[in-house]
Design brief:
38% of the residues lie in helices and 20% in strands. By secondary structure, the protein is α/β, with parallel strands linked by helices.
Length: 220
């Protein structure tokens, strides 16, 4: 699917911090931004007003998660939508194995198209994270990522079945959600999570810097 009204001039150029962030996969990141600015808008996955700030607000903001993810991890991005944060994260970290989980058909179609365009071999699974069929399809997981999917207690309830003891949930959150984390620790602990903390990430990315909530599935 293409939009004849949207051409290369509508695609924002990458900021200087993108080159060190993506290394030899910068061309892949550029192509992903083109797809977000074109088909992502046409399919209703990205608002037209978001196009000028795709790099800082969405793509590099997702890359910031990389420093919270262990080397060689098997990562599942739940409620992936347009592929955020999973696709930028895996582009910046080729050592990771990525699975994108998304329930909506039109979003799944876009994700599959991106995977084909970038030639990465990532896996796309249609369904909800809490469904047993999805858990089986995903297989072993080291890290689950999510970006603005749901409040943390609800998100934990959805993804807990994917998390073996010792696996981590790394959730991109805004300032309001981050401020609520201390009050949520008892509820998250009761749900089987430990070492719950807020971590600033991506300081080298300038305005794309953000924060994540990191927690680990307890061994029970």
């Amino acid at each position: 699917m293409s939009d004849p009204g949207r051409g290369p001039a509508d695609v924002p150029a990458e900021p200087p911090v993108a080159a060190p962030a993506f290394g030899d996969r910068l061309d892949g990141a550029r192509r992903y931004v083109e797809l977000l600015a074109g088909e992502g808008v046409v399919r209703g996955l990205i608002g037209p007003r978001e196009v000028p700030r795709l790099w800082e607000r969405h793509v590099l903001n997702s890359v910031a998660v990389a420093e919270a993810v262990p080397h060689g991890a098997r990562v599942v991005d739940v409620g992936s939508g347009a592929g955020l944060p999973g696709i930028p994260l895996a582009l910046a970290r080729p050592d990771l194995t990525l699975t994108l989980v998304e329930p909506m058909a039109r979003r799944v179609e876009f994700l599959q198209h991106v995977v084909e365009e970038l030639g990465t071999g990532w896996t796309v699974v249609r369904g909800r994270a809490e469904e047993k069929s999805v858990v089986r399809a995903v297989g072993p997981v080291d890290v689950v990522t999510a970006r603005a999917v749901a409040p943390l207690p609800r998100l934990v309830g959805w993804v807990r079945g994917m998390l073996r003891p010792g696996a981590q949930l790394v959730a991109l959150v805004g300032a309001t959600a981050a401020a609520e984390v201390p009050a949520l620790v008892p509820e998250l602990a009761a749900a089987g999570m430990r070492d719950v903390h807020v971590r600033p990430v991506g300081t080298e990315l300038g305005e794309a810097a953000t924060q994540v909530v990191v927690m680990t599935r307890a061994g029970r």
